[in-house]
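TICKET: design request
STATUS: open
ATTACHED STRUCTURE:
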């Protein structure tokens, strides 16, 4: 695997992680603030 591919993979993974956090954190906060259990 060359360095360019590694950089691209890091960017893609970073983007996915960012999106998950962006969507997941508010949802998590809502769930914790308003327990459904």
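STATUS: resolved
RESOLUTION: sequence designed for all positions
ATTACHED SEQUENCE:
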């Amino acid at each position: 695997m060359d360095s360019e591919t590694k950089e691209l993979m890091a960017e893609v993974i970073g983007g996915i992680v960012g999106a998950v956090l962006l969507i997941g954190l508010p949802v998590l906060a809502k769930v914790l603030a308003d327990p459904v259990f």
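CLOSING REMARK: The chain is about 85% helix and 0% strand. The radius of gyration is 16 Å.
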